[in-house]
Amino acid sequence: MKRITVHEEWCLGCHLCEYYCAFANSGGDDMADALRGVAIRPRIAVEDAENDVHFAVSCRHCATPRCAEGCITGALSVVDGVIRLDADKCVGCYTCILLCPYGCITPSEGKPIQKCELCLNNSAGAPLCVQKCPNRAIVLEEGAVPCAL
């Protein structure tokens, strides 16, 4: 089971992962053209805390995901350890947003919600946030995360 892990001690707080995430999910071929004049809606978010501490938040693909368990339509499901979204089934009730203890599911434009699916829905291969992090603070690794209380 793969998941994205962030080493906050290495995170520079540059927010490049957010831009690469938005680009990877834009469907465009050129980053400048795809994001020019657009309010980006990344599936990863960098939080800036006190004392110059920064950390990125994205779906942890929990071993027992409350979001998928609580989804009333079955729009969220676990496929090979990745929590996947079937946007055609989603009715926008936002139960998953309320159930995610990490705040990793957000409202979206064009479909009711969005979440990280490890770039499986686009041609990026490995997630661009992992590939392009200048300090290698974001890594893709094996392992399940229990869902927080």
Briefly summarize what is shown.
The chain is α+β, with helices and mostly antiparallel strands and 149 residues long. The protein has helices at 16-24, 31-35, 66-70, 95-99, 128-132, and strands at 2-6, 45-48, 54-57, 76-79, 82-85, 106-107, 113-114, 138-142. It is globular and about 40 Å long.
Number of helices: 5
Tell me, what is the CATH class? Alpha Beta
Shape: globular
Radius of gyration: 15 Å
Low-pLDDT stretches: none
CATH architecture: 2-Layer Sandwich
Distance between the termini: 21 Å
Structure report:
The chain has about 150 residues and is an alpha+beta fold. The protein has a single domain (about 1-140), classed as 2-Layer Sandwich (Alpha-Beta Plaits). The protein contains 5 helices and 8 strands; from the N terminus they run E-H-H-E-E-H-E-E-H-E-E-H-E. The chain has helices at about 15-25, 30-35, 65-70, 95-100, 130, and strands at about 1-5, 45-50, 55, 75-80, 80-85, 105, 115, 140. The strands form 4 sheets. It has a two-stranded antiparallel ribbon. The protein has a two-stranded antiparallel ribbon with strand order 2-3. Strand 4 and strand 5 (about 80-85) form a beta hairpin.
